[in-house]
Amino acid sequence: MISVDSLAAGPLFGLPLPELWFGLVFTMLATFLFFDGFDFGAGAIFALLETDDERETVLAAIGPFWDGNEVWLVVFGGALFAAFPPAYAGLFSRHYLLMFGILGALILRGLAPEMYEQRHDAAWQRWWGRAFVAGSVLAPFLLGVFAGNWLVGATRSLTLVGLIVGVTLTLLTVVSGAAFLQLKGQAQLPDSVTTYGSAATAGYLLAVVATLGVLGIRLPDGLSALLSPAIVALVMLSIGLAVGYTVALRREQSLRALGAAAAMTYGLVAVVARLMYPAIDPATGTTVRGAIVSTLPLNLMTIGASLLLPLVAVYFVVLYSAFSGPITPEEAY
Amino acid sequence: MIDPVIASRLQFAVTTIVHIIFPVMSMGLAPFLIYFTWRDIRTGEPIYEQLRRFWTKIFAISFVVGTVTGIVLEFEFGTNFAAFATAAGELFGGPLAVEGMMAFMLEATFLGVFVFGRDRVGDKLYFISSVAVGLGTWLSAVWILIANSWMQTPRGYELVTENGQMVVHLVDPLAAYLNPRFGYMFVHMQNAAVESVALFMAGVGAYFVFRHHVWGYPVENPQFWEATLKIGLVALLITAPLQVLHGDMYGRHVAETQPQKFAAMEAVWETESYVPEYIFAVPTSIDGFLNPRAKELFGIGIPGGASWLASGGDPTAEIRGLNSFDTEAPPVAIVFWAFRAMVGLGFWFILLAFWGGYRWYKGQLLEDGLLHKALMGSSLLGILAVELGWIVTEVGRQPWVIQDVMKTSAGVSPGLTGTEATITLVGFIGVYTTLLGLYTYVIWRIIRNGPPGNDELRSVKNDTRTPDSGPSPSQPTPGAVDDD
After folding, report:
1. Most exposed of A9, B57, B121, B147 (fewest Cβ within 10 Å)?
2. Which of residues 89-108 of A touch B (CB under 8 A)?
3. To the nearest 10°, the Cα dihedral for A306, A312, A313, A318?
4. What confidence category does residue A305 fall into, taking pLDDT thresholds of 50, 70 and 90?
């Protein structure tokens, strides 16, 4: 029998659990933004493709994956709720309409491919194709607006920082999406996908610069925070990764490019987390230690997450290896 | 503008009422799909491949819509019920987080393999995928009902005031999360899901059997629809009686642990003993409908019936009346009529099951047009009964969001304005109406298109092979992809 008293006495192994959960919550967010990001990005590139076959290829490429990818958002929300309830409640209720905007975009994005495949008449597919693109672009954009507002502690939902981070994140999903589509749809998709990926990377770097500029003005200790070694290193690393990504994409080393895009996504989220810490809700000044739940539930959740997250990794390995490599023409829906 | 408290409650009602349809479909279909997959792999008979592929399509669209409407509910605890989320997050957030990691991840990842991967993976992994998806849907229910049952009968916690705010602290996780209520809810809910899907299958099957055998129209794959009808009927014969049996036990548990809800279910206002159970109650005036008082209704009452239900066999037992509680009563009319309608449906399903079973036994299952019509008419009533049951559960515990601990009105986000809440409420009514329309349209199309024909089946194409050997993963069979 588990002794509840020993679990309530202190953090497991004396670990700094509040900080670890802060890191874990942002890792979940980054995992969501990378995995669902490449299918958001694929949805944006969908708009630029012309033939039916190309569009069907995009839908077939993301078909088996997107639902699992999106669950990372549920896991992120659940973990934030479970570990830092006041931060979860404060953030979500403060940006009320924005949250429902994100939900609306996700509903549109999830439903559209299913509807698109129902009928094969042109008008029907044109409209559901547009809905798919709209959802795919709006979801990361609004999530970026949310993340920007979160970081600077905005009390309104429409802010300059939010808009710029929204654009940054949307471009980053296109970067990932291009690499993913090159990997999955080599034979069926035009070379222009590579061009979109490179262009999005250039745009992304510019957007990062704009983001940092605005943050320098907007954050209380702006410039000194941005010039801290960790942030400078992360930004330099992102630039290196962007270059590596572009080279890999041109050489059609798609997996390598996708890896670079993943690293860029985790890097961006790391910058946000680093700038936010030790606060978890800068709008109210609530800190990580101030918002964390008490020791007993925290220990229980730590045990739960340590057991479950490795399993989740196994599920992802099974899924992605079952559908590894380019899709075959027959699979294009 | 609507008051933010009312708007938030209405919005949560709308979003859960719509959402629950999709988990009912996916949880209810799960055991059938595991069975079809197993039989398909083991026997290689075309009928099982048809059953698997046809019902997988319905499962997949239900799952997708369930995903996007489910995220909404998780977010609403933060957006609309921030005070509740802050106060109870320590107990309530954990199960939601674990649900995501343990259950939702399992179903969503293996769903990809299950829906798209028949030609990419071997038989064994394919079967494991069907089990993983099914298990995931049921594990989801475990964690969601653990969270919900704690709100109904909270245990294992203490109340602490922090910074002037009341906060719930977890002290005994076993008491909190292995709540007795959870067991009743889980059994009743999962059986209800399977029963609802059984009714749906039987109804859809009956439609085509009716057209074919009674009207004599040509129907493609008649044996597929006959099998669907029979499988639905077998499942109904098992689940319908069980639903009433453990429903009765669940009701008794409610009487013990949530007497206010039980009093609302029976519309008992004054504390009394030897209370009759009005199985058939008919309002004789508008007021009797809107404000039911069991004593004043025209109906057939079983003497001592309600007392008997509440106590588990004692017709003289006392039932506490609504007037004896300090807080205002829940909306009695909704709870009272929803409970009656649910119970009535439950008994109708048993009758239907035995009727169908008897005709089948007599060898007249395919010819009884009246039975077919009854089954068609009842195909969605299982889902309706689930909705009514949840209405009893959730409306019946008002005014509490956490029974006897926190009122629903105190749980709403403090900063929320009436304008914001009204915008999203109206938005959801519009979006979810559209969503339900589209979902119905897709299901209708899947049914109209019917199962894949013989020329599309793997089991027919691969007939030269031994039934046990699947195609090698590296060589997909052209054209045999589940989604077309």
Report:
1. A9
2. 89-94, 96-97, 99-100, 103-104, 106-107
3. 150
4. very high
Q: Which CATH number is A144's domain given?
A: 1.20.1630
Asked if residue B68 is part of any domain, the answer here is yes
Tokens of A174: 């296109």
Q: State the average pLDDT for chain A.
A: 90
**Angstroms from A110 CA to nearest CA on chain B:** 7
Residue A84 structural domain: 16-306
Question: Which residues of B are less than 8 Å from A63 in CB distance?
Answer: 112, 115-116, 483
State which residues of chain B have pLDDT below 70: 461-484
In a domain, B432, yes or no: yes
- Residue B356 tokens read as 């169908």
Q: Could you tell me the pLDDT band of residue A2, with boundaries at 50, 70 and 90?
A: low
Residue in chain B closest to A117 (alpha carbons) equals B484
Q: Is B42 helix (H, G, I), strand (E, B) or coil?
A: helix
User: Which chain B residues contact residue A4 at CB under 8 A?
Assistant: 171-174
The per-residue pLDDT of chain B, averaged, comes to 89
Residue B364 lies in a domain: yes
Write the pLDDT tens digit of every residue in B237-251: 999 999 999 998 999
**Does the bond joining A85 to the residue before it have cis omega, within 30 degrees of 0?**
no
Q: How many domains does one find in chain B?
A: 1
B351 vs A: CB within 8 A: no
Rounded Cα–Cα distance for residues A246 and A197 (Å): 8
Name the pTM for this structure.
Answer: 0.90
Residue A324 lies in a domain: no
Which of B74, B91, B116 faces A78 most closely, judged by CB atoms?
A: B74
Number of domains in chain A: 1
